[in-house]
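Quick start: read one record
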Amino acid sequence: MAVARVSEGFYAALPSFDRFDLVVEPERYSDVPADWLVLITDVRGSTQAIEAGRYKEVNALGVACIIGVVNALRGLELPYVFGGDGATMLIPASSRARVEPALRGLGRLSESRFGLSLRVGLVPVGELQADGFPVRVARYRASAQVCLAMLSGSGLTEAERRIKDTAQDERYAVGAGAEALDLEGFECRWLPLQARRGRILSLLVQALGEGEDQQRARYRQVLEEVRAAVGELKAASPVEATSLRLAGRPSAFEVEARLRSAGGAWAVLREKLRLVWAVGLARLLLWSGKKAGSFDGARYRQEVSENSDFRKFDDTLRMVLDVEPERIAELERRLQAMADRGEIVFGMHQSEAALMTCMVGSYSGDHVHFIDGADGGYAMAARPMKLMKRGMGVGASS
């Protein structure tokens, strides 16, 4: 039992670092214990749903997966990475019995509320390690209040491959049983973040190479190319405190109301009206700079900006940036040169705005804000990257 407790606290005990360029340095990462699980969720048919204009629903379900698992394991700090149409998480195997009811609830909610199917799978880290696929994690301190998980190792891609392999589906699937879903803390209340510099760029980059050392060197070069074309990444964040605006119309809260209300149409309407009132109060506090309870109107916008995940790493470099069109063209030219040399594969998607979906543990620092490009962002950027992989003959586990 004592050993299990030590393993459960593994991630929280890791040291953190606060320079984003260090996410590509292997010494910042620690091997995940063998008695943990890689948990992967994604919305099936997300591309078609996004093309049908349902990108807000797809994003919301991706964040809901994180919140449902985090709430099922309250008191335990977990690594997670939001991927736009799903999420990758790491959980102790000892917590599986507490997590599976939430995962079943998420699957039912996705179907009943949105008519979308959720793929969920759990792969033992020890199994991946034994087969030669490492899984590593680091803690990047995005702000004084929040650390974000950074993931590395071929085990992540291999876990996804195994979950999507229908011949092995049952092996990694969530079993039947009771449901117990808690989405407390899910919020989707900010207006889309309009580009201030011209366009919102969703960018995915994967380094290729014979070994991890070569891949790391190429990730370092990618970061240099991004800075050369775009400038400092922090300045290119789409989350600018002074431009954050809360929504006001009931229709803006449709997705959150459908996720968080247990009843039918009337329950959804009541929830939307409750949200209109709650957001109206928050808007007043933000305008006046006053404080009510843990909500500090003078500080909250700045905390939202600091606690956003607009840049991250999970064996794929992921960024959502506010960039001038000419800088995007320059960045594409630089990355294409690396791709032509067989060093990377990448994908881009441009939109007029970014979306922000929030996980709020408390209004006094413990809140994380998940960023994606509007119109599909990461999911749409993944399409040209997959085409590039196929054109280069890169396998699914590369």
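Residues 265-288 form the longest helix (24 residues).
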